[in-house]
Amino acid sequence: MKLFLAPIQGMTIACYRNAFARHFGSIDAYYAPFIGLSETKKISNLLLKDLLPERNDSSINVVPQLLGNDGVLFKNLAYAISAMGYNEINWNIGCPYPMVTGRKRGAGILPYPDMIKKFLDTACSDNSYKVSIKMRLGLKDPEEGLHVMEVLNEYPLCGVIVHARTGEQMYTGQVDLDAFKTLATSCKHEITYNGDISTYDNYLHINSCLPTVKNIMLGRGALSDPFLPSRIKGHNIPSEDKISIIRDFHDDIFNYYQTQLSGDKHLSDKMKELWDYLQVHICMDKRLLKKIKKCHNSSQYTELVNQLFDSAVWIE
Ligand SMILES: Cc1cc2nc3c(=O)[nH]c(=O)nc-3n(C[C@H](O)[C@H](O)[C@H](O)COP(=O)(O)O)c2cc1C
Q: DUS-like FMN-binding domain location, by residue (predicted)?
């Protein structure tokens, strides 16, 4: 089983990916959050900062992701990124936000297979990189994904990742395993399942429902339980060691943001996002967590976090 870490905008940036690899590992590729294609944006170090070699541990496999519907812009940016040493570039046709879909980008392009074909004609015409796709079952209806797959099958893609929801479902409601199975059966490329694997039991369930699927992408589940990938790969970390590993991971992220963000408010807002995930498996004094989430002062934050970790217990 190959495991991929899902891109989560604002969270799984380079420092997070590096720290995740260092403390938890068991991920075969880390998909970076999308970079939007735009005519006006110059290809600069600022645009590509999350992918710069100096920010990314060279021992981990990172896949950059682009979002947009213009094949020429994709090709130009993908070429520039490939020159930085990346050989797979992922195209995001799964983003469900109305501001994106309304412009026929992300999942908004799924009802238009002809646009996808036109895009891929250009995007796949450069041999300096390989293209993979991250998609949803459809925008409104899984039938849409089947028409898209007929188009995808005509191109030399290096993989198709499917989040088993429609765009309209956003991130809620049930994943549709039957629709995923139908889509996976029609796909000629290496397929990856994504969606709602948040526990080892969820993983076992998906594995038994989809026995032919050999690649899995983990998102929110791995952010809440970063030990999940290693458990899936058969390495069991003793529960009593987990809090101290999470603490080291947290400290790496905190130290990074402390050097990057100006002002304690930005820093604490960022750390709050991390806690939204980490709190799931940590049994703690909830009053401390509340104080951490309200705190706008970094030395007070550190004190509260130390108190929390000193008394916390990992819950499987
Ligand atoms: C806050 C947030 C940001 C996300 N950002 C991206 C992104 O940049 N690119 C992308 O392809 N998917 C993005 N996703 C979707 C995830 O990669 C993943 O497909 C989705 O969360 C379902 O998997 P999960 O249930 O394992 O989390 C995002 C999801 C969330 C919740």
A: 5-298
